[in-house]
C-alpha cells in the first residue's frame, strides 16, 4: 500500500499534456505540433489529423490549421480549463460528412 | 520518509542469522552488474550499469559502495500546463544519471552456494533529461536485496533488485521533486 501511495504521489496530475493541451510557443514544446494565433490563446499542443481516429480520446479532428485535434465540448464551461479566452465553438469537421461541424474548444473568430 | 528510515534501521541493526558457509572469506571484493531501472516523472530510467566495492565488516555485513550509470532515452517529457507551470512527465526509461552510493549489505543463511542478502544504502546522483534541457541533483535511499551464488573460488554471480526513494532538486522552475525508481540487475563479484 505504501508503494502504491508513493507511486501515486509521483505521477503528474494535469488536464493537459505534450500530446494535446499544453501551452506552447513552438513545436519543440509538443509531441507533434504547436497551434498558435488568435484562435489558440497561449498556444496549444495538438496533433495533425485526417479524421477523429488520429486524435486522443476526447478530441475531434477539425479543418483548422490544416487539420488539427482539438478538445471536443458541448458548452463553454467545458473549455475554461484552457483559459479565459477559450470557448466552445463550431468548427468544420475533418474526415466526416461534407459541411459537417463539430463543437470544439478554441477562441471565437 | 519515516518508513524507509525504519526499514534501513531494521536491516542494519536487526540480528541476522549466520552468513552462508558458501560465502567467500575474502574481506574485499569488486563487482560489476548490468540491468535496467524504471523511472518516471523526474526519476531517470533505462539501462543500469554499476560497479561496486565490498568490504567485509562482520560475518554478516559488508560495506558496499560504488558508482552507477543509468542511460535512458533522450526523448522530451516536460510541458507547460495552462497555468504556465512547468511539469515533467518523463517516461519509464527516460534520462541519464550518474550516481555514487554507499550502504550495507547483510547476508542471511543460504542453501549450498546460494546466499540471500538485503541491502540498504544512500546515493547521490546527478540527473539529466537531455530532451527537456533539465538537470538536477538527487539523494535516493536504496532498499533492496538479492541472491549471490558462488560459482568458483573467489567468484560469485549476483542477481538483485532495488527500490530507490528520495528527493531531487531540479532546474527550469521544477524545484524539489520526489524520486522513485526500481532497478533489477545481474552481475559478477570477484574476491580481491
What's this model, at a glance?
The complex is a heterodimer of chains A (109) and B (192). Chain A has 109 residues and is mainly beta.
* 3D shape of chain A: globular
- Based on secondary structure, the structural category of chain B is mainly beta
- End-to-end separation of chain A: 50 Å
Work out the helix count of chain A.
1
- Helix percentage of chain A: under 10%
- Per DSSP, the total helix count of chain B is 1
Q: pLDDT under 50 segments of chain B (min length 5)?
A: 6-24
Overall geometric form of chain B: elongated
Radius of gyration of chain B: 18 Å
The first-to-last residue Cα distance of chain B is 37 Å
CATH classification, class level of chain B:
Mainly Beta
Order of helices and strands of chain B: HEEEEEEEEEE
- Helix percent band of chain B: under 10%
* Oligomerization state: heterodimer
Write up this protein.
The complex is a heterodimer of chains A (109) and B (192). Helix content of chain A is 7%, strand content 24%. Chain A has one helix at residues 2-9; strands spanning 33-35, 44-46, 59-62, 68-71, 87-92, 101-106. In chain A, the strands form 3 sheets. A two-stranded antiparallel ribbon of chain A has the order 1-2. A two-stranded antiparallel ribbon of chain A has the order 3-4. A two-stranded antiparallel ribbon of chain A has the order 5-6. The mean pLDDT of chain A is 88. The longest helix of chain B has 12 residues, at 2-13. Chain B has one domain: Beta Barrel (Porin). By secondary structure, chain B is mainly beta. The chains are: A mainly beta (109), B mainly beta (192). At the A-B interface, helix 1 of A face strand 4 of B.
Amino acid at each position: 500500500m505504501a508503494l502504491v501511495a508513493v507511486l501515486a504521489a509521483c505521477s503528474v496530475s494535469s488536464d493537459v499534456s505534450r500530446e494535446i493541451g499544453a501551452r506552447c510557443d513552438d513545436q519543440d514544446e509538443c509531441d507533434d505540433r504547436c497551434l498558435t494565433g488568435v484562435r489558440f490563446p497561449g498556444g496549444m499542443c495538438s496533433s495533425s489529423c485526417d479524421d477523429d481516429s488520429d486524435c486522443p480520446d476526447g478530441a475531434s479532428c477539425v479543418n483548422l490549421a490544416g487539420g488539427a485535434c482539438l478538445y471536443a465540448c458541448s458548452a463553454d464551461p467545458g473549455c475554461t480549463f484552457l483559459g479565459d479566452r477559450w470557448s466552445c465553438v463550431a468548427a468544420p469537421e475533418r474526415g466526416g460528412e461534407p459541411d459537417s461541424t463539430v463543437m470544439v474548444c478554441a477562441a471565437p473568430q | 520518509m519515516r518508513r524507509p528510515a525504519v526499514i534501513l534501521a531494521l536491516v542494519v541493526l536487526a540480528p541476522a542469522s549466520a552468513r552462508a558457509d558458501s560465502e567467500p572469506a575474502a574481506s574485499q571484493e569488486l563487482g560489476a552488474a548490468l540491468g535496467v531501472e524504471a523511472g518516471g516523472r523526474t526519476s531517470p530510467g533505462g539501462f543500469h550499469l554499476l560497479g561496486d566495492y565490498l568490504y567485509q565488516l562482520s560475518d554478516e555485513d559488508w560495506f558496499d559502495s560504488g558508482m552507477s550509470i543509468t542511460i535512458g532515452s533522450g526523448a522530451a517529457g516536460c510541458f507547460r500546463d495552462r497555468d504556465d507551470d512547468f511539469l515533467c512527465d518523463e517516461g519509464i526509461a527516460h534520462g541519464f544519471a550518474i550516481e555514487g552510493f554507499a550502504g550495507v549489505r547483510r547476508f542471511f543463511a543460504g542453501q549450498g552456494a546460494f546466499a540471500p542478502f538485503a541491502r540498504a544504502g544512500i546515493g547521490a546522483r546527478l540527473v539529466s533529461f537531455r530532451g527537456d534541457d533539465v538537470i538536477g541533483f538527487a539523494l535516493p535511499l536504496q532498499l533492496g536485496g538479492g541472491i549471490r551464488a558462488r560459482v568458483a573460488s573467489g567468484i560469485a554471480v549476483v542477481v538483485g533488485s532495488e527500490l530507490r526513494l528520495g528527493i531531487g532538486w531540479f532546474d527550469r522552475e521544477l524545484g524539489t521533486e520526489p524520486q522513485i525508481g526500481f532497478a533489477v540487475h545481474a552481475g559478477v563479484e570477484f574476491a580481491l
